[in-house]
Write a structure and sequence with these properties.
Helices cover 38% and strands 22% of the residues. The protein is an alpha/beta fold and 499 residues long. Helix 7 links the parallel strand 9 and strand 10 (199-201). It folds into two domains: 2-248 and 457-479, 3-Layer(aba) Sandwich (Aldehyde Dehydrogenase, Chain A, domain 1), CATH 3.40.605; 252-438, Aldehyde Dehydrogenase, Chain A, domain 2 (3-Layer(aba) Sandwich). It has helices spanning 40-58, 62-78, 80-91, 95-112, 115-118, 154-165, 180-191, 206-214, 227-239, 262-274, 292-307, 328-344, 379-382, 398-407, 421-430, 467-472; strands spanning 2-4, 6-8, 11-13, 20-25, 30-36, 123-128, 131-139, 142-146, 169-173, 199-201, 218-224, 243-247, 252-256, 284-289, 347-350, 369-372, 389-392, 410-411, 413-417, 435-438, 454-455, 458-459, 474-482.
Length: 499
């Protein structure tokens, strides 16, 4: 059986801890590989090596660093299908969705090609008599990224590309559930010209995470995952004096107004709710139709679309709508939450609990589920299910629908479907959620804007990618300079002021 180790100093190395985790094939239910779980000593050694490599990399001209990003983009395009197949094999995504995973990461790398411009400081000539002032953006040194299973290509690139473009070394701790693609990305970075040691991929579990948070050399940490772990990483990292940004869970509402195009809204809900088996932090998991008539018409349009979804392995072709969830534990938790909804009195309009795929009975497939008449006190409303489950919460007015989204503890993404510009504008202005779609179900910003939620969906004050990434991975140094025209005698004992 294949053993996946780590990427250290420009090559694959075996783990030395003696501990391993299973890497499943979600479609068949088989263990297809073992991934090494790093010890604290292994993590610390990788950081020490990265710190040495960072000195020369940080001193490299930003334009030369950008050229590595340019070459990396070319290699990503060259190996797109290879990366997508490896991603689908370990995660379970369909091939089109896997290619999208790589593409959205690639677009952030493209943005990072503009690093020379983004790293420019500010300059003030003659701020005082013979005094100039200027600022410099300098790398923080060694940064780390702890990334989730659901986007094993995109989110590692969201983290490492800006960090590297800024002149930092980077420690990537990807999910142990699907580690192959991050290792492949490291190989492509080396082929693109990144010096050995500047990017280290250390596979691991909580022991490696804690070692990252406690290592004094690491100056900044980024994380994407569940809210409880995000809060833990944020608090421990900040307590250790690190700069930390953590992105947590979500419960994304889509409000459907009576004037909305319900065919468009239903199509949007099916794609946003069931794509990638619902394993997206930006998935729409709550539909909020306004008015019972709107709700009844929407449910009638949703049911045939959901029942027609094609669920299967990525090997079944490009027309598969979604594949299995990532592990048997994930499947068990999703079905438990579905049962809790039934027990709480929600109406299970489409029941996928008995779904079974011939030839793949041991795979982690779950049929689509649609609930109606869900109420805010139910567990299926309060918790992030991370599966192919869409809950419908009926609202009797726009204000009631708005309040539902605003009162929920998560604030990652939201959407409204309406033909009315005033309603849409009011919604965008008032909603306390970080990413908003107007007739767009999954409002993930493009690479040159920033990605991030509000409330318990985020811990930290800077978002991912876009300009915020360059702020996060650099420190600003301000220099005040004066060049005397001659030798000055005597010291000054009062605070300098501009005359």
């Amino acid at each position: 059986m294949e053993e996946i180790g780590h990427w250290i100093d420009g090559k694959r190395v075996a783990g030395t801890s003696g501990r391993f985790a299973d890497v499943w094939n979600p479609a068949t239910g088989e263990v297809q590989a073992k991934v090494a779980l790093a010890s604290k000593a292994e993590l610390d050694a990788a950081v020490a090596s990265a710190a040495k490599a960072q000195v020369a990399w940080g001193a490299t001209n930003p334009q030369r660093r950008a050229r590595v990003m340019m070459k990396f983009v070319s290699l990503l395009n060259r190996d797109m299908d290879k990366l997508a197949e490896a991603l689908s094999r370990e995660h379970g995504k369909t091939l089109p969705d896997a290619r999208g995973d790589v593409q959205r990461g690639l677009e952030v790398v493209e943005f990072c090609i503009g690093a020379p411009h983004l790293l420019k400081g500010e300059y003030t000539d003659s701020a005082g008599p013979g005094i100039d002032m200027y600022s410099m953006r300098q790398p923080i040194g060694v940064a780390a990224g702890i990334t989730p299973f659901n986007f094993p290509a995109m989110i590692p690139m969201w983290k490492m590309a800006p960090a590297l473009a800024c002149g930092n070394a980077f420690i990537l701790k990807p999910s142990e559930r699907d580690p192959s693609v991050p290792m492949m990305l490291a190989e492509l970075m080396q082929e693109a010209g990144l010096p050995d040691g500047v990017l280290q991929v250390v596979n691991g579990d909580k022991e490696a995470v804690d070692a990252i948070l406690d290592n004094p050399t690491i100056s900044g940490v980024g994380f994407v995952g569940s809210t409880p772990i995000a809060q833990y990483i944020y608090e421990r990292g900040c307590a250790n004096g690190k700069r930390v940004q953590c992105f947590g869970g979500a419960k994304n509402h889509m409000i459907i107004m009576p004037d909305a195009d319900l065919d468009q809204a239903a199509d949007a809900l099916v794609g946003a709710g069931y794509g990638a088996a619902g394993e997206r932090c930006m998935a729409i998991s709550v539909a909020v139709p306004v008015g019972d008539e709107t709700a009844d018409r929407l449910i009638a349009k949703l049911v045939p679309k959901i029942e027609a979804l094609k669920v299967g392995p990525y090997t079944s072709g490009e027309d598969v709508d979604y594949g299995p969830v990532v592990t048997p534990m994930a499947k068990e938790n999703i079905l438990r939450l579905v049962q809790s909804g039934v027990d709480a009195g929600a109406e299970l309009v489409v029941d996928g609990r008995d779904f079974s795929l011939q030839g793949y009975e041991d795979g982690f497939f779950i049929g689509p589920h649609l609930f109606d008449k869900v109420t805010p006190d139910m567990e299926i409303y309060q918790k992030e299910i991370f599966g192919p489950v869409l809950s419908t919460v009926r609202a009797q007015s726009y204000e009631e629908a708005l309040k539902l989204a605003m009162d929920h503890e998560y604030g990652n993404g939201t959407a409204i479907f309406t033909r009315d510009g005033d309603t849409a504008r009011d919604f965008a202005n008032r909603i306390n959620i970080g990413m908003v779609g107007i007739n767009v179900p999954i409002p993930v910003p493009l690479a040159y804007h920033t990605f991030g939620g509000w409330k318990k969906s985020v811990f930290g004050d800077l978002n991912q990618h876009g300009p915020d990434a360059f702020r996060f991975y650099t420190r600003t140094k301000t220099v005040t300079a004066r060049w005397p025209s001659g030798i000055k005698e005597g010291g000054e004992f009062t605070i300098p002021v501009m005359e």
